[in-house]
Every structure is written in structure tokens, then in C-alpha cells.
Input
Amino acid sequence: MAALALMGVAGGQPAGQDALHPRQESTGSVIAEWAGRVSGTVDPEGVLRAPDEAVWHAYVSLAMYNAVVGVEGRYAPYRWQARAPQGASAEAAAATAAYQVLVTGFPKAGPALETAWKASLAKVPDGPAEQTGVAFGQRAARHIMKLRANDGRGASVPFPPDTAPGVWRPTPPQYEGFATAWIGRMRPFLMEEPSQFRPGPPPALTSSQYARDLAEVQAYGAKTGSLRSARQTETALFVARVEIQRALGDHAARHGFDITETARLYAVANTVITDAMITAWDSKLHYGTWRPITAIREADTDGNPATRADPTWEPLLTTPAHPDYLSGHATWAGALMRALEELFGTARVDLFIHSVGTGTTRHYEHAAHYVRDVVDARVWAGIHTRTADVVGSVTGEQMAAWSLKRYFQRT
Output
């Protein structure tokens, strides 16, 4: 799965917004501002993979959510029962919770984070409300970090090499070992265990479905000589690096979300995204299926007379260093869109999503349209089979629906 660019630019304008005439700051803007700082703190060089960043978005979003609902009420806190003193500032609590989580994890970023934190507090009137909000935000951050202690982030998870037909092995050009395998064994945020929503196996190598999947990606995902249209190529590049955090903040601002609704939006989105990655990587570890580039180049070893080997075939995008089934991007896309449907009570998600890969922004009126683009894009990019994408998106939707019945409910 390519880099996700999960955050986006802090304070970025919505599509079509004149930067010289910014929108009036919403009451939930402190949540979006601190969510926008996560990526720059966690990955200032832009070199980490999606799971490395996603877990920190979840930590920060949950700390802010607990801080805000502990002040404002309305929704059940995440695995916590504490309430703030009456009159505490939710803005001060949220900013402090985010600051405390990030400075604990990344002390070298402390000076920049402290400057940002003080700027957030400067918008809150001095006095007892600010002071009690700060103290409660510190409590919320400590609680989340205690909950997540020794959760498996970054742990060593081996994946023994195997050259048998159908089994994943490092792919060109870097031939890198299984990257971020730890996410598949990490303790989930919402699910009971990583394998809870593990789907059934992918199509057998000798099946007609496998042959159809391989033929499609071979024809449409090739770097050169493919059957892709220009629009399909642009979609493949667009989906590769999207700014989801920015899209969430824009939606919250345009729809007038208050600080509680905004905190809930980010907490829901980032926990289901991360649990979807856990689900996808659990399947990658369990099934360990080879990527299209290997399958196509070595099709003469798969035992399927309907496949055709091409030893020089290359995909449009560089293949990420982990197995095909499930597609991580499709799984988290399905999970996120189903979660937004549950939150909004409608399939109309109204998201402006910007892509770092293409520098363009697309408007997605309905959840299914984004999921469709992701499923197609990973095939057209030459890095996933359609089955890995479709099953991933459906699995993500199932996980999100289950999770939203148990967490972040109105009290």
C-alpha cells in the first residue's frame, strides 16, 4: 500500500475556498488543527508508511475525544469514566491532550509543539476554565497512553521467506522484506482481536477467478502498454496519496460541527482506519499471497493454464512491500466510508479529498463512490488483484459497522 498522507496540511482551505478570505473559524477548529500537526510531528521527512502514522492519529484523536466529551458530555468516552470539573474549557482540554500525547512520543519536537500549544491556549480566556481544562487534557492524554502501553506498535513480526508458487516474496525494485508486519498483530482499538474479521481465503491459483483477476491487472495495471484510459491512470495516481485528515476538517467546518462533533468525527475515523489496517495486515500475514508483479512474471509456475507469464511485466506504481490479500487501502477506505455513513445517518458523505499524488481535489458526494475509486485504482496501479480490493472493502465495512454499535455512542 502506498503512502497514505493521512493528515494533510493543517489549516488548509476547502476546495474552492479563497485563501485570502478564510472561513470563520469553527468551534471545532482546535481538533482539526491538532490533527493536522500529527503527520509533521510523526513523519517530518515524509518517509514513513501508512500504519506508522495511522496509530498516532488514533492516539491523538482518542485523547482529544475523551478530553472533550469529559467536559461537554453527549457521547460515551472511550474506555474511560472521568469527567472534568464543571466549567472547564473543552478547547484547552483538547489542545493539551493532543500536545501531551505528541510530546510524550516525540520529545525532540517539544519546542515546536509547545509553541503550537501556547497558541491554542491563547485563544482561551485566562482563568479557572482554562486551568481546569489543561489539567483534564493532561489526564486524558495519560489515560490513552496508559491504555496503549505495550500494544505491539513497532514490534518484530517475522515472515519466513518462501518461494513456493502463490506465496509472497520481496518484489522489485527494492526487494524489501515484509514492511510494517507488526500492525497485523497490534492490539486493536475497537475490535476484540486482529483476526476478528479475517475473511475466507483468496481464490485458489488454479481457479478461474484467479485467472480473471490476474488477466485484469496484467492488462490494466501495466506501466507501459496497458489498456487504461487517461482518467483511469489519473485515478490510480490520485488514490495513492490522499489527505483524509484535511477532508475531515473541511467537512466539519462546512457543516458547522461543534467541538464535540468534530472530536467524535476524528476519533471515529482514525480508530476505524487503524483497525482496518490491523485487519488487512492480519490477513496478509495469515494468507501471505504473492503480488501481481510476481504472479504475472511467474505465471508459468502457478498450475493454471489460463494465466500467461510475462517475465518483464511492471506495474504502474511501485509495489509496496507486503502481500496482496487483503488490500490495506481498500480495507480502510471501506471502513472509513461505512463509519461516516453511520455517523452522518446517510450515504451522502460530501467530502472534498485532495491528493498529494496528483495535486488535484475530487468531491465525493457518496461513500460508495470513493470506495469504488479505491478498488479500481489499486488494480489500475498494478499492485493489487480486484479480489483483494473488493474483499478488503467489504471486510472494512463490516468491521466499522460492528465497532460503531459499541463505541462513540450518544449517552
The chain has two domains: 29-147, 181-404. The first strand starts at residue 348 and ends at 354. Confidence is low (pLDDT under 50) at residues 1-26.
